[in-house]
């Protein structure tokens, strides 16, 4: 599904489409789930939120500059954040917001356009 108009932001990754088992991020197509920051998009082998651990999302936790919020795109519907992931993020001072993947895509683009230090772990739908 198209996410809507995305502003041109030099050097920033923005989500253009999601659905059909993948994503289109700043002109690059991805099959499956992804990890995303303003500066990079990476394939993520997770197929459901149970696979979301601090280790599995390490690339976004190690981003420079550091992030302040992780948007957790849970797939077609919202499910709770795994307790171990929530605790690991809290220990690092990073917030987490679970939501369905479509909402996470739209929210990522808005927060990135506002220069927020946001990242997303998105389960493909």
Walk me through what this model shows.
The chain has helices spanning 58-61, 83-91, 101-113, and strands at residues 15-19, 22-25, 28-31, 33-37, 41-44, 69-73, 95-99, 118-122. The chain is an alpha/beta fold. The chain has a 5-stranded mixed beta sheet, with helices on both faces. A 3-stranded antiparallel beta sheet has the order 1-2-3, with helices on one face. Residues 5-9 have low confidence and may be disordered. The chain has a single domain (15-122), classed as MTH938-like (Hypothetical Protein Mth938, Chain: A, 3-Layer(aba) Sandwich), CATH 3.40.1230. 21% of the residues lie in helices and 30% in strands. It starts with 14 loop residues before the first strand and ends with a strand.
**Strand numbers in spatial order across the main sheet:** 5-4-8-6-7
What would the principal axes of the Cα set say about the shape? globular
Assembly state? single chain
Structural class: alpha/beta
Q: What is the count of helical runs?
A: 3
The biggest beta sheet, please?
A: 5 strands, mixed
Question: How far apart are the first and last residues' alpha carbons, in Å?
Answer: 10 Å
* CATH homology superfamily name: MTH938-like
**How confident is the prediction overall: mean pLDDT?**
93
Uncertain residue segments: 5-9
The Cα radius of gyration reads 13 Å
**SSE string, helices as H and strands as E:** EEEEEHEHEHE
Strand content: 25-35%
The number of domains: 1
The helix fraction, in percent, is 10-25%
Query: At the third CATH level, what is the topology name?
Result: Hypothetical Protein Mth938, Chain: A
The CATH class, by name, is Alpha Beta
Number of strands: 8
Q: Please state the second-level CATH architecture.
A: 3-Layer(aba) Sandwich
């Amino acid at each position: 599904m198209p996410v809507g108009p995305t502003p041109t932001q030099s050097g920033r990754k923005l989500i253009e489409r999601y659905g059909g088992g993948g994503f289109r991020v700043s002109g690059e197509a991805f099959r499956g789930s992804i990890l995303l920051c303003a500066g990079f998009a990476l394939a993520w082998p997770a197929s459901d939120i149970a696979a979301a651990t601090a280790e599995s999302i390490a690339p976004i936790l190690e981003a420079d500059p550091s992030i302040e919020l992780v948007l957790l795109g849970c797939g077609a519907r919202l499910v709770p954040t795994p307790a171990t992931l929530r605790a690991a993020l809290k220990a690092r001072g990073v917030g987490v917001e679970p939501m369905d993947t479509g909402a996470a895509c739209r929210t990522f683009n808005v927060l990135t356009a506002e220069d927020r230090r946001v990242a997303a772990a998105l389960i493909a739908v």
